Amino acid sequence: MPAQAHVYVVDDDSAVRESLQSLLTEVGYQTETYASGVVFLANYQRKEQECLVVDLRMPELTGLEVQRQLQLRGWSVPCIFLSGHGDIPVAVQALNQGAVSFWEKPCNPRELLAMVGQCLARSQQQHGESQSPSPLKHLLERLTVDELAVLRGVIRGLSNRQMAVNLDISVRTIQFRLASLIKKLGVNSRSELFDVVWSAGGFPLESSIPTRI
Questions:
Q1: Which 3 state secondary structure label does DSSP give 35?
Q2: What CATH number is given for 135-208 in this structure?
Q3: For residue 158, is pLDDT > 90?
Q4: What CA–CA distances, in Å, run from 59 to 5, 114, 179?
Q5: CB within 8 A of 67, min separation 6: which ones?
Q6: What are phi and psi of 30, to 5 degrees?
Q7: Which of 10, 36, 178, 179 is the most exposed place for a label (fewest CB within 10 A)?
Q8: Domain boundaries, given as residue ranges, for the chain
Q9: What percent of the chain shows pLDDT beyond 70?
Q10: Per-residue pLDDT for 37 more than 60?
Q11: At 210, is the pLDDT very low, low, confident or very high (cuts 50, 70, 90)?
Q12: For the domain 5-130, what is the CATH code?
């Protein structure tokens, strides 16, 4: 197992943290555990191969909010969500925001390890892409300020209606701009936009994006 393979476990349940840490270290992964998303974000340092296993429902910051904060900072960490609540709508939202997988507790250890391995492989690929000039970054830089504002809203998990309210424009205008940037970036869905942003190394021209989103 490569020494750089790094897994973060964020869960407010100490028993879950200890169980996952034991499972992951046993197969050779470097593992860090955190009881809250706030502490994790304060201590996070990017690794070449990394994966985040995070509880969906936690005090202070939920798993979705942790994922969103990472994305807003331009950090492309493949995420696996865990939940004991069977909240299907939230699971769908997590997947739409770029999560790799969603599991109900307790999950099958072998299947979870296989998914962690996939996340680490994806992370290494993204890291390699970020180290060399990417045509996608140049493509993002050609988006208009209005399109970048919508893209930023999508990355934050906002609905078309929420973006329309924040930007004080119509939902139809949001739909038009979203369709335009999807066409420019050559993707087919909202979820594919996350991969575009990640492989491009995060948002370019950040200061020019309207701050109301």
A1: coil
A2: 1.10.10.10
A3: no
A4: 28, 29, 36
A5: 52, 54, 79, 94, 97, 98, 99
A6: -75, 130
A7: 179
A8: 5-130, 135-208
A9: 76
A10: yes
A11: very low
A12: 3.40.50.2300
CB count in 10 Å sphere of residue 59: 10
Contact status, residue 25 vs residue 115, Cβ threshold 8 Å: no
Please list, in sequence order, all residues whose beta carbon lies within 8 angstroms of the beta carbon of residue 142, skipping any fewer than 6 positions away.
Answer: 184
Q: How confident is the model at residue 136 (pLDDT cuts 50, 70, 90)?
A: low
Measured between alpha carbons, how far is 175 from 43 in angstroms, rounded to an integer? 38
CA-CA distances (angstroms) from residue 71 to 42, 48, 77, 170, 183?
A: 15, 17, 8, 26, 22
For residues 166-188, average pLDDT: 88
Please count the residues of the chain.
213
CA proximity to 20, closest of 4, 28, 31, 36: 31
Answer whether the bond into residue 59 is a cis peptide, omega within 30°: no
Q: Cα angle at 165 between 70 and 60, to 5 degrees?
A: 35
Asked whether the predicted pLDDT for residue 132 surpasses 60, the reply is: no
Write the secondary structure of 186-198 as one string of H (helix), E (strand) and C (coil): CCCCHHHHHHHHH
Is the fold of 5-130 the same as that of 135-208? no
